[in-house]
Design goal:
- It is a single chain.
- The protein is built from seven helices and twelve strands.
- With 250 residues, it is an alpha+beta fold.
- It folds into two domains: 107 residues; 115 residues, no CATH class.
- InterPro entries: DUF6348.
- It holds the Pfam family DUF6348.
């Protein structure tokens, strides 16, 4: 009698949990959020997750040297996380810094998704060879202008709020602002690169928050220029944001 052997289940695209660096300190309280970042990376670029190892609030790429790390830039808040990344784990290498705040029933999940869609998208693009899989290369025909004189990549605009037509209109206005091409950021950029840029707009019926930050520091002139753009009126709360990286001078 012949028995039908069940086919062996395929190996997962990446491990459910990354190996732990045995020399690292015990896992911190926010290790669960780091695991969420790991899974967001793995769902999009399993080749990066497969080489990851975790330790001391960091995910390391064992073979290529990238690092995604949790930082303490702002005062601690339970739904706010500061996240940095670098492509090479070497002393003195620039770290691209961003922050995200989650909300709703699972703030950590939303915060991880916001990061992977913005600054994390730029990380994925550069860590996987700049093939336009995850972020757009600017200075190309049909694209919004990038930072003048710099090779620039940008995530998509992420938008959310209470009324879909209103936060979509806010996203369209942010795209039309073309702030990277208009703002003078030259004095804030590290010539060694890469430089992380965050663009954030939040609109309520009676308030506007418009901010451009470079390497984690608010760019006052650029933020004022962004605030002066004609923004649509809203009846609720609407937010739009994106991240970009000025990689190196052209």
């Amino acid at each position: 009698m012949f028995w039908n052997r069940g086919k062996k289940a395929p190996s997962p695209a990446y491990p459910a949990r990354p190996p732990v660096d045995p020399s690292a300190p015990p896992q911190p309280a926010d290790a669960e959020f780091l695991l969420r970042l790991y899974h967001e990376i793995g769902m999009r670029a399993p080749e990066l997750a497969r080489e990851a190892i975790v330790g001391d609030r960091m995910l390391f790429g064992r073979h290529t040297g990238w690092v995604v790390m949790l930082l303490d830039v702002h005062e601690a808040a339970p739904t706010h996380w500061d996240i940095g990344w670098t492509l090479k784990a070497k002393k003195g290498r620039p770290t691209v810094v961003d922050c995200v705040t989650g909300f709703g029933s699972d703030p950590a999940a939303l915060a991880a998704q916001l990061w992977i869609s913005t600054s994390g998208a730029c990380f994925l693009e550069l860590a996987t060879g700049s093939k336009r899989r995850f972020a757009e290369t600017l200075h190309r025909e049909g694209c919004a202008p990038g930072v003048p004189g710099w090779h620039t990549i940008s995530s998509n605009i992420v938008y959310y709020g209470e009324q879909p037509d209103e936060f979509e209109a806010l996203s369209d206005a942010l795209r039309d602002a073309e702030i990277l091409g208009r703002a003078d950021l030259a004095g804030l950029l590290d010539p060694a690169g890469p430089n992380g840029i965050k663009v954030f707009v939040n609109r309520t019926p009676d308030q506007l928050t418009a901010e451009v930050s470079v390497n984690g520091t608010r760019a006052d002139d650029a933020s004022a220029l962004l605030a002066a753009h004609p923004w649509p009126q809203v009846t609720g709360v609407a937010t739009a944001r994106f991240s970009a990286v000025a990689v190196h001078p052209l």
